[in-house]
Amino acid sequence: MQFGKVDHPETVDFSLPHDHPDTLKLLSNSKNKKPLYITIGCAKWNKQDLKGFYPKGIKDELAYYATQFGCIELNATFYKAPSKDQVITWSNKTPDNFKFFPKIPNTVSHFKRLVGAQQPTEEFCDAIAHFEDKLGMAFLQLHDNFKPKDFGSLETYLKSFPKVIPLAVEVRNKEWFESPIINDNYYHLLNSLGLTNILVDTAGRRDMMHMRLSSKTAFIRWVGANHPTDYKRLDEWISRIQQWKEQGLENLYFFIHQNVELESPLLAAYFIRNLNLALGCNIPIPKTLHDNNDQLKLL
């Protein structure tokens, strides 16, 4: 992922901001707290991007990837909507507890800009419904120039989105975060529809780290900088997740990206191992061809 890439990440203040006050209100507003469900994955499974991850002789990359990770952020569907048969093929290659998080096609989000997009949306949802229990959550990533002036289009689209498909939303334009009134209106819409917002942690867009949840699900797209600071950044996220868990977070979907994706599995292994230590959970740690304690930098 190149979004938010900077030339000198060592100059960036990567500290996580304090939570928005509404995050604590939302998380603590529950009498019966559920155990925290966690799934962690990468953005892609192809061998070209994840060099050094697949053992020699692996022919089916998805089938192997699914033995190492619990989920995939399915960016391929952004460029081409899958057919029902393709979804079933992908699903059949993965274990029962694996989850897919398909991105809504750019035909809907970027070209039509949500207007007159009912047919392609329904076709997409009809196809991904065949993931059945392996469907984690679809997500809508809007264009950088999709601004609050387009709120009406967003509201109409989200209200008509098929209710049987869980959905997360990512707005990118800075105007969504600069005005408290605009931000409150946006979150009121998500809250009223039971939708999840996406937090993007990337070097060049710290404004997107508003730390405001719209549901008891945290959907995090974390983008490393292929830089030593990546490890400290992940450590800080572990502390925040631990805090959210104590406050009432119910689901954590955490996807690790890199500007150069080949390091993503190694960072994921580091993150999962230390998250297990912090939370007392037992998420399987993916193997890498570089797997040793020095490179995982265990705490």
From TrEMBL:
Q: Which domain of life is it from?
A: Bacteria
Where in this chain does the entry annotate a coiled-coil region?
none
The residues forming the signal peptide are none
Pfam families, per database record: DUF72 (PF01904)
Q: Which InterPro entries match?
A: DUF72, UPF0759_sf
Protein's UniProt name: DUF72 domain-containing protein
Q: Which organism is it from?
A: Pseudopedobacter beijingensis
